Amino acid sequence: MPPRPRSRRPRGQGELNEAARLADRLQRAGYTKRDIARIIDRDPSLVSQFYTKNKGAAFVTALREVLTAVEAGGITDLPELAAIAARHTQRRTTASGARARVRGKAVLITPTGSGTGRVGAQAIASGSARLRPLIAEAARQGLRLAFTVRLAKTGYVHPSGSRTDSPGIRRDVIQRADHTEERSYGSAQTGGFDAADFALRVDAAGGDVTAAVHQWLVETGRIHPDAQIIHLEVRTWRPR
After folding, report:
1. Which of 13, 36, 118, 199 could hold 233 in an S-S bridge, CB 3.0 to 4.6 Å?
2. Closest by CA position to 237, among listed 182, 195, 184, 183
3. DSSP code string of the chain
């Protein structure tokens, strides 16, 4: 008899650890798991692991202070709550007591304003959260941006190479064997897009970069509303 698959369901309410209980209270106050992840400056998957893998002990104090700020102080602004959490979030330590090394951020903007961030299907499903810091920093620095999306050929409104779809830039598209296409929007030659405008779109979408890009593509008549983005790349540069 083959072994039974291990259950991935969250543990019962009575068995939740303190981080999960605090996260539950924040959700009852109107915040999503993605909001909580933004507040503690971590990936949303970590918040889910409060429930499934008993993680989050390092964030209990920060979450408790944030909850107090929400319930007693009436503070609702995510950046302000993130600032409160940051004061109570400590880096992990090694067995010797030294501060643990952490992985660098997935995106980086050089002194010249050049930056690139890419995400695949798994990250896109959770809102392409790794791209948000890139867009936010590009907006802060007054940069321009462009992006490339990949989706099924049938998801695009215009045929490959259409000038209506991507006017003024090289219209060659990358066609894949799985019947998907990559198309680029914006470039340094055409001026691209104002990063600040896209940052506002991302904020309006609750931090979901995938949703913000998808909405722009639908609003501008480039893709069908039911099209699914499966690859997303954002590029930035400093305007001349």
Report:
1. 118
2. 195
3. -PPPPPP-SPPPGGG--HHHHHHHHHHHTT--HHHHHHHHTS-HHHHHHHHHS---GGGHHHHHHHHHHHHTT----HHHHHHHHHTT----B-TTSPBPP-PPPS--B-TTS-EEEEE-HHHHHTT-GGGHHHHHHHHHTT-EEEEEEEEEGGGBSSPTT-TTTSTTS----EE-TTSEEEEEE--TTTT-EEHHHHHHHHHHTTT-HHHHHHHHHHHTTSB-TT----EEEEEEE---
Digit-coded pLDDT (tens) for 10-28: 444 458 899 999 999 999 9
Tokens representing residue 165 in the block: 């779809």
The whole-number pLDDT of residue 104 equals 43
CB 9 within 8 A of CB 51: no
0.70 surpassed by pTM? no
pLDDT over 60 (residue 147): yes
